[in-house]
Amino acid sequence: MIDLLLNSAPAWALTHAAPLMIMVPLMLGAILALVPSGRIAWIVSIVATLSSFLLSLILLGIVQTNGTGIVSYAIGNWAPPLGIELRVDALNAMILLLVASIGLLASIFSWPTVESEVRKEKTSLFYSAFLLCFGGLCGVAITGDAFNLFVFLEVSSISTYVLVALGAGRDRRALPAAFNYLIMGTIGATFFIIGVGFLYAATGTLNMADIAEKLPAVSGSRTVQAGFAFIVVGLGLKAAMWPLHQWLPNAYSYGPSFVSMFLSATTTKVALYALIRFLFSVFGPEFSFEIASFTYLFMPLGIAAMVACSFQAVFQNDVRRVLAYSSVAQVGYMILGLSLGTADGLSAGLFYLLNHAMIKGTLFMAVAGVVLTYKGTTIRDFAGLGRSAPWTMTAFAIAALSLIGMPLTAGFQSKLQLGYALFEHGWWWAVLLVVFSSALAVIYMGRILEAVFFQPPANPRKTRKEAPIVMLVPLWVMALANIYFGITTKLPLDLARDAAAAVFGMGAGR
Amino acid sequence: MNSDHHIILRAVSKMLIPLIILYAFYVQFHGDFGPGGGFQAGIIIAVGIILYALIFGVPAAMRAVPPVFTRSLAAVGVIIYAGVGFWALFSGGNFLEYQALFHEPPGEHHGQHIGIMVIEIGVLCGVAGAMLTIFYAFAGRVAEIRDKDW
C-alpha cells in the first residue's frame, strides 16, 4: 500500500511531505476559527487529518526506502545546524503514523459526541483547537530542533487545556481539571526549556543531531548534567511519568469524551517519544550519568507506576478514572522497557507504546459511545450495557482483554516482547512484577466487564441504544486492529525494531 | 457613566490613544532597521485599545472593537503567516523560503524583504487579536453568582 502511495503521489508531496504534514492541520485550524458552522468544521478536520495520515505514510515509505533512513527538510532553505530542520527517521516516522491514524479515526468518530457535549456556538472553535493540538503533536514528533520542539509542545499543550476545559458543558469539574493541567503542563514545559537552555549554553547549538555530535566533548560538565535533569523532569511531567502524573486522571475523566479518547492515545505517547529522543539520540546510553538514571530513576519509577497506579485503578468507581489510572500504569511499562537501555528494551517499549495507543483509544471510544447514549460513566451506569449496546460493549471487551494481556490480542504481544527484553537483561523479577500488575488489570477491568455483561441494568427501562454508525465504524476498526496485531505482529514490531535500530545508530534490521 | 472626576483621564487618553497606535506602527515598520517587530507592535496596539476600555468602559471598547473581530484577527494573523509559507511552496521553494517568493536569483532580495514584512503583519494581527481576546475574556466575564449573593 505504501509503495502504491509513493508511486502515485505527485512530486511536490514527496519533497514537501514533512512541512505539509504539520502545516495543513495548523492552517486549516486557523481557518476553522473563522467558520461558524460546526458540521463544516467536522468535515474540514477529517480532510486535514486524512491529508496528514497520507503524508505520514509517504514519509514512512521514504524513510524505509531511501537508503539513509532519514528525511531532512530545511525550513526556509536555511541549512540545518543554523536553520530549523524537520528530521524524520524510523523512530518519528512511526510516531507520526500513530498520531495521524489515531487523529483520523478520532475526527471521523467525533461528530455525534462533540455535538452532544460541546455548546453549539463553540463546536467550530472546538475543532479549530483540535486541529491545532493535532498539528502541534505532529510538529513535536517531526522537528529536529530542540527549541522548535518546545514551541510545538506548547502549541499542542495550550490547545489541549482548551479542549479539556470545554468539557465544562457536561461536568463543571472540567474547569479545575484543565487549570490543574495548565499549571502542571506549564511547569513541565518550563523545565524542558530550561534544560534546552543549559544544553545550548554547553554546546552552542539547538539542532538535536548537532547537539548529539557536540555533547561527548562536554559530557563531564555540570551544565550538561543539570540540563539532562531538567529535560527528564519536564518531559516526564508531560508524559505522566509516575509520580508526575497527578494532572492526568482529572483531565481524562472530566474533559469531553472525544478529547479523553484523543489525548489518551496521543499526548503522553508523543511526550514519551520526545523523552526517548532526548535519552537515546541527543544524550546516549554511553554517558555514565544516563546509565545511573536508568537504573536508579527510570526503572524504579516505571515499576512504581505499574504497581501503584494499577492499585489505584482498582479502587476507582468511574470508568474513565479507571482507564486514566491504568494509562499511568501503562506508561510505567514503557518506561521500564526503555530503562533497560538496550535496543531490545527500547523496541519493546515502543511496541508497547503503539499497542497501548490502540487499546486505550478503543476503550475511550467505547466509553464515549456510552456517554453519548446513557450519559453516566460510573461503573454502576455500565451495568447491563452488554445487552442494550452489544456492539459498543463487545469492542470494549476486546480492548479490555487486550489491556489485560490475553493471548491473541495486541496487549499480549506487547507484554511478551517486554518480558523477552527483561529476561534477556536478567531482570526476571521485573517480569514477575509485570505479571502481578497484569493481574491487577484483570481485577480493575474485570469489575467493569462483570458489571457490563453479568449485572442487570441499573435502570431496567433503558432500552436498546447503540452508538451511531459514525462512531461504531472507527471503534470497530480499532478493536479489530487489536486482534489483528495480536495474531500477526509483523507490522508494528518491525516499525518498533526499525525505530530502536535507527536510534541506536544501526542499519534498519530487516 | 457619569464620572466627571475622570475628565482629565478621558481627555489625556483621547490624545494618547492615537499616538500609541501610531507608535505601534512605527515599531512595526521600523522592525527591519532597529529593535521592534510584529510582536511588540501587536502588544502596543492592544494596549491602546485596553487603555480605551479602562477609561471608557469595556462595553464601549467592545462596540468599537467587537470580540468577534479580535478573535478573527488572531486567526487571520496565523493564516497570513502560514499563507506566506504556502506561497513559497507554490512558488517552488521550500516552506517559508522568502527567496522563492518572486522567483529571484540569489543576488536579489525583494522576496526576503517583502516576505518578512508580510510575516510581521501576520504576527501583528495575531498578537493584537490574541491579547484583546484574552483581555475581553477576563474583563467581560459575568460572574455566575453575583457578589452580593455570597
TrEMBL record, chain A:
What keywords are assigned to this protein? Cell membrane, Membrane, Transmembrane, Transmembrane helix
Q: Which GO terms describe its cellular component?
A: plasma membrane
Chief subcellular site? membrane
Give residue ranges for domain NADH:quinone oxidoreductase/Mrp antiporter transmembrane.
Answer: 145-440
* TM region positions: 12-35, 42-63, 90-112, 124-143, 149-169, 181-203, 223-242, 254-276, 296-315, 322-343, 349-374, 395-414, 426-446, 467-487
What kind of membrane protein is this, topologically? Answer: Multi-pass membrane protein
Name where it's found.
Cell membrane; Membrane
- Does this UniProt record's set of keywords contain Transferase? no
Keyword Transmembrane in annotation: yes
Which family does the similarity line name? Belongs to the CPA3 antiporters (TC 2.A.63) subunit D family.
What's the name of the protein?
Monovalent cation/H+ antiporter subunit D
What species was this sequence derived from? Hyphomonas johnsonii MHS-2
Lineage runs: Bacteria, Pseudomonadati, Pseudomonadota, Alphaproteobacteria, Hyphomonadales
UniProtKB/TrEMBL annotation, chain B:
The membrane-topology field of this record reads:
Multi-pass membrane protein
Q: Listed GO cellular component terms? A: plasma membrane
The name this protein carries in UniProt is Putative monovalent cation/H+ antiporter subunit B
Primary localization: membrane
Q: What family is this protein classified in?
A: Belongs to the CPA3 antiporters (TC 2.A.63) subunit B family.
What InterPro entries does UniProt report for this protein, alphabetically? Answer: CPA3_antiporter_subunitB, MnhB
UniProt keyword list: Cell membrane, Membrane, Transmembrane, Transmembrane helix
The segment(s) forming the Na+/H+ antiporter MnhB subunit-related protein domain are: 8-133
Q: What organism does this protein naturally occur in?
A: Hyphomonas johnsonii MHS-2
Q: The organism sits in which domain of life?
A: Bacteria
Transmembrane residue ranges: 7-26, 38-61, 73-93, 113-138
> What Pfam families does its record include?
MnhB
Per its UniProt record, what NCBIfam families does this chain match?
A: PRK12508.1
The places in or outside the cell where this protein is found are: Cell membrane
